[in-house]
């Protein structure tokens, strides 16, 4: 358990060194990185093989086809295809609650999001959010920055190792008996090794960490894309309420210092901010009715829940 806690804290500390001070509304004006669409495609082509290796796609063809149709529905309704990107949607078999996108339209959503959603509109909101990252070129900008900073890989590993050693020693003071040197060395070693690995991993996929401004911007873009595609505006942003509930649950039993560290280190906006913004969006969009779920949703949700149960074992 403590080894997992080391990794969680280190991911937060190493990956959140940079945030953006931009606050745009789907505009690409003012971006520091002047990548062309062809350069974005090249970056994606370079990253995609390793990404698919680290985040394996589902073997369930029905579930994959369902998410492909849902994603393409958003693309077609908002006239995004070949404008200028071609979009692909992949279901990832991971027990992490996550969704992410590479530049040029490669979009990924993990099994738990489908399993947890109470409506297809919620999933549409999540996928729309990731499309928003692509359209606003958030990930492309970060990948370009990361490529220019690849020489820092060793440095990130060293920093991670140092942070891990500290976390490991702290844990040893809580878990080891007084005078048990072997026990203390063991936990310090766990922290050092885990910290070095996380430092490198954070650099490897650092482009997946967007600033708070970028995340909120993508929420707004994704909300509008989902509503234009015919989904109920009162349901599209509901997944953020689930994230907020999970966030609150995870803090139960933590002391005040640990809660503060988690909040301060998070590169994503607090889920409460996302819930508040979703509520505001409902009032700002002129749309009545809309679809909650299509006829396939409940069956796809059950398939995802069954896969998720196996992944958690």
Total DSSP E strands: 3
Class computed from helices, strands and strand pairing = mainly alpha
Our count of helices gives: 14
Low-confidence segments, given as residue ranges, are: 1-23, 151-176, 183-203, 255-267
3D shape = globular
Q: How much beta, percentage-wise?
A: under 5%
Write down the secondary-structure element order: HHHEEEHHHHHHHHHHH
Oligomeric status: single chain
Strand order of the largest sheet: 1-3-2
Can you summarize the main beta sheet?
3 strands, mixed
- Percent of residues in helices comes to 55-70%
Which key phrases capture this entry?
three-stranded mixed beta sheet; 65% helix; globular; single chain; mainly alpha; disordered N terminus
How do the helices and strands line up, and which of them pair or pack?
Elements: H1 2-15, H2 37-54, H3 61-77, E1 88-92, E2 99-101, E3 106-110, H4 111-116, H5 120-135, H6 138-148, H7 153-175, H8 181-204, H9 212-228, H10 233-236, H11 239-251, H12 256-265, H13 271-284, H14 297-311
Parallel strand pairs: 1-3
Antiparallel strand pairs: 2-3
């Amino acid at each position: 358990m403590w080894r997992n806690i080391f990794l969680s804290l280190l991911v937060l500390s190493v990956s959140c060194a940079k945030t953006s001070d931009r606050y745009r509304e789907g505009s690409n004006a003012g971006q520091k990185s002047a990548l062309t669409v062809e350069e974005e495609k090249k970056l994606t082509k370079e990253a995609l093989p390793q990404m698919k290796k680290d985040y394996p796609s589902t073997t369930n063809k029905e579930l994959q086809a369902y998410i492909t149709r849902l994603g393409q529905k958003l693309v077609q309704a908002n006239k995004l295809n070949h404008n200028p990107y071609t979009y692909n949607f992949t279901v990832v078999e991971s027990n992490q609650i996550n969704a992410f996108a590479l530049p040029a339209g490669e979009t990924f959503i993990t099994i738990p999001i489908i399993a947890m959603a109470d409506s297809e509109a919620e999933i549409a909101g999540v996928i729309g959010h990731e499309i928003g990252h692509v359209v606003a070129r958030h990930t492309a900008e970060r990948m370009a920055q990361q490529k220019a900073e690849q020489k820092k890989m060793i440095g990130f590993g060293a920093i991670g190792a140092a942070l891990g050693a500290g976390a490991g020693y702290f844990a040893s003071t809580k878990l080891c008996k007084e005078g048990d040197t072997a026990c203390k060395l063991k936990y310090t070693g766990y922290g050092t090794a885990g910290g070095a690995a996380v430092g490198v991993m954070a650099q490897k996929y650092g482009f997946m960490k967007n600033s708070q401004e970028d995340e909120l911007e993508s929420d707004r873009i994704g909300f509008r894309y989902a509503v234009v595609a015919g989904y109920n505006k009162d349901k599209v942003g509901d997944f953020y309420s689930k994230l907020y509930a999970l966030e609150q649950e995870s803090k139960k039993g933590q002391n005040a210092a640990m809660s503060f560290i988690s909040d301060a280190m998070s590169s994503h906006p607090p889920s409460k901010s996302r819930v508040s913004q979703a509520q505001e969006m409902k009032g700002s969009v002129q749309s009545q009715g809309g679809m909650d779920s299509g006829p396939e949703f409940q069956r796809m949700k059950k398939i995802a829940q069954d896969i998720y149960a196996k992944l958690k074992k």
